[in-house]
Amino acid sequence: GNSVTQMEGPVTLSEEAFLTINCTYTATGYPSLFWYVQYPGEGLQLLLKATKADDKGSNKGFEATYRKETTSFHLEKGSVQVSDSAVYFCALSGRGSYIPTFGRGTSLIVHP
Amino acid sequence: DSGVTQTPKHLITATGQRVTLRCSPRSGDLSVYWYQQSLDQGLQFLIHYYNGEERAKGNILERFSAQQFPDLHSELNLSSLELGDSALYFCASSDGTSGGLGADTQYFGPGTRLTVL
């Protein structure tokens, strides 16, 4: 079946540091890949997505590239802000299935 | 604001009781999903409804049930509650515009925090 593995957190960074959160997946066929973000006290919201190999999703300074050869979708940001502190979830959903598979989430804490 | 509403925001009840959580999807979305989020289990998919019909079941206990009404709002019923049912329950909706390609974005509500004492 489908699965998503994310690096365990928390990830603690200083403001303006570079961020990478690793995500690898197992799936049959060609899934769509997503990053969702959950701010404290809120529901998840889509951050970015990619639907085919080599696609790059980007939003709010965050980027992730769909790497089929390494089955990865790592999230990166060049300079994090305190307001980026949140939990980040990697997810996939396969063709023919509307049910996404979520990773366990990675907590990011950014200090001033 | 995702456009998905959930009530109540908080619910405190006792073991053995029954509660109902309510969700209204975004205007025009036909799909509703229910998830349970807990510290030890992460985000677990419970059940999916599309236009009033159950489409998929995940890790949903037999004590739990759901339905989607003609106006597309959905209710999740939790009965014979146990301490371990304490969690955040999220509802999400999607528009299904990817046509089965699996690229649909899910829009999450703010959640209902259930505490079972």
DSSP helix fraction of chain B: under 10%
How many alpha or pi helices of chain B? 0
Mean pLDDT of chain A: 93
The two chains with the largest interface, and their residue counts, are: A-B, 26 and 29 residues
Main pleated sheet of chain A: 6 strands, mixed
Radius of gyration of chain B: 14 Å
- C-alpha termini separation of chain B: 31 Å
Sheet-strand content of chain A, in percent, reads: over 45%
**Which structural class matches the secondary elements of chain A?**
mainly beta
Give unreliable regions of chain B as ranges.
Answer: none
Give helix and strand order of chain B, one letter per element, not per position: EEEEEEEEEEE
Low-confidence stretches of chain A: none
Tertiary shape of chain A? globular
- How much of the sequence lies in strands of chain B comes to over 45%
Q: How far is the N terminus from the C terminus of chain A?
A: 41 Å
C-alpha Rg of chain A (nearest Å)? 13 Å
Please count the beta strands of chain A (DSSP E, at least 2 residues each).
12
Q: How confident overall, as mean pLDDT of chain B?
A: 92
Describe this structure in words.
The complex is a heterodimer of chains A (112) and B (117). Chain A is mainly β. Chain A has strands at 3-6, 11-14, 19-21, 23-26, 32-38, 44-50, 56-59, 62-65, 75-77, 86-93, 101-102, 106-111. The radius of gyration of chain A is 13 Å and the shape is globular. The termini of chain A are far apart. The model of chain A has no long low-confidence stretch (mean pLDDT 93). By secondary structure, chain B is mainly β. Chain B is 0% helix and 51% strand. Chain B is built from no helices and eleven strands. Chain B has strands spanning 5-7, 10-13, 19-24, 31-38, 42-50, 53-57, 64-68, 74-78, 87-94, 107-108, 112-116. In chain B, the strands form two sheets. In chain B, strands 2, 4, 5, 6, 9, 10 and 11 form a seven-stranded mixed beta sheet that branches. Chain B has a four-stranded antiparallel beta sheet with strand order 1-3-8-7, with no helix packed on it. In chain B, β7 (64-68) and β8 (74-78) form a beta hairpin. Chain B is globular and about 40 Å long. The termini of chain B are far apart. The relative contact order of chain B is 0.33. The model of chain B has no long low-confidence stretch (mean pLDDT 92). Classes of the chains: A mainly beta (112), B mainly beta (117). Chains A and B meet through β5, β6 and β10 of A and β5, β9 and β10 of B.
